[in-house]
Structures are given as C-alpha cells and as structure tokens.
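Hello again, I could really use a second opinion on something today. I've dropped the whole record in just underneath, so have a look.
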Amino acid sequence: MLTSAPGEVANGSLAGHRRRELAQFLRTRRSRLRPEDIGLPPGVRRRTPGLRREEVAQDAGVGVTWYTWLEQGRPIKASGQVLDAVARALRLDDAEHEHMYKLADLPVKVSTSPVRAVSPAISEVLAALDPLPASLVNSRWDLLASNDAHRSLFSHWHDHPCGMRNTLWCMFMEPDVRAHYINFEDEAPRAVAQLRAAFANHLGEPVWTDFIDELTEGSNEFAGMWARHDVARPGARIKNFLDPRAGLLRIITTSLAVTEMPECRIIVYTPADEETRARLPLTRVPVG
C-alpha cells in the first residue's frame, strides 16, 4: 500500500502542487469532525478542533504512518480502494470524494478537454428560454453567453460594462454588484466551493492561478472562503436579488450540463414564487 511515487521532481511540479492541495484538503476535513461523529466517546477537551490523525487512520483501516504522510503531502501513492476508506472515515460527500480523487491524481469521470466556441445551437437554446433569464458559464464562472432576459436582469448592476464578465469577480470585487445579493452569506461560500472543486482539474494553469491569486489579494472574504477547502457541485439554488425596478426577486437557479462543452453549464433563472413571477417582467424596463 505504501510506495514512493516514481519520477518525483521538485516541489514546484504539478505533482507536488497536487500533494500539497490534497494535504490541506484532508486536514480541513479532519478538523470539522468530532469523536462522536465516528462513534468514539467525546473524551477530554482537545487542544485543537477535530479528530486526531490516528483516529481517522483507525476508522479507515489504514496505517497511522501512511495517513500522516498523506496529510504531510509526501510522495506516496494510494489505490482508489484505500482512498474510498479515507473518504468514508472523513464523511466526505460526493463532491468532496471526487475532489480527493482528482488531487490524488486518480482517474475520475470528469472531462478536461478545452472549451470550444459557443455553437449556434446553444445560442438558440439560450434565446428560446426567454422570458426566463439564462446564461452559459464555465467552471471558473466566466460568462460565455446569455439571452436577452439575462442581460436585462443584470446589465444595470454595473455602472459601466464589466470587463471581467465573471460572476465570482463581480460578487467579491464590485461592492455595487454585491449589494444586489440579499443572501450573499449563503451563496458566496457555495460558489467558491464549486470553484475549488473545478480547480483540481486546472492546477498549475496560469489563467486559473492568476485569477485566484487576484481574488485572494483583492478580497479578504474570498481568501477566507478559499482557505476552507470546501468543495461542492453545481445544483439548484434559491437566490434572493434586490432589483431597483422589480424589488425583491426570489429566483431558483438550475444548472444544466452542456455535453459538447465539458465543464460548462447553462444556468436557468426561474421564479421561486408567484410574486417574483409577476415582478420579473419589470426587469425588462430600463432603469430610470
């Protein structure tokens, strides 16, 4: 079970980067658990939160030394079966389990093929969803395309055209945009967790690392959320927006995978209640 990884190179290598990410991720997952979560008595007061390494190793049925080395980012290899046992011991959900596989450089069913241009067919799908706002985004939250209803809803959030065209950038770096999010404290951490999960497919890519570095340096809130190493998958969510024309809008966002564009999804905005359904057409009126 315990082997040295052949051909390991300097710490700056992609393999070294993955090991450090995996080590930090495992430590954060271990720190959130309590002894009673894995069937142990609470015991005496602990100096640091979470389980001890030996408790995780025992619950997973692996060697303490091996697990310690894994959390230290040492060049060791593990089978999927062993990592599955660690995932069970750490009570990882599906997104976290998949994230661990990526960081351990084990194959997962996620395509990392380069994104192609938006096809006319996808553009037509977006247009056909009107009057529901809809957009096409990639796993870094870049806005690739949108329909008229989406542009009408969000265009007034900026005093001038947004050069970044990225949802996370606007949420954390533009105070005027953030002011429109009523439940920012709920939605922002989940968006960052989705970015963290996608990042495992792009370690060492300058376009990703530069983007994350800029957000980390520019927003203490983003830096704190990023440091948690939380991961999540896209899914249906209720977002609360405050629109100057329509007032409070409660919107369900549904993510639809786009098979021809790996790691991209169409996000459809559907009214969560009848009040929002009645107010949504007001967002088509220019701000006066």
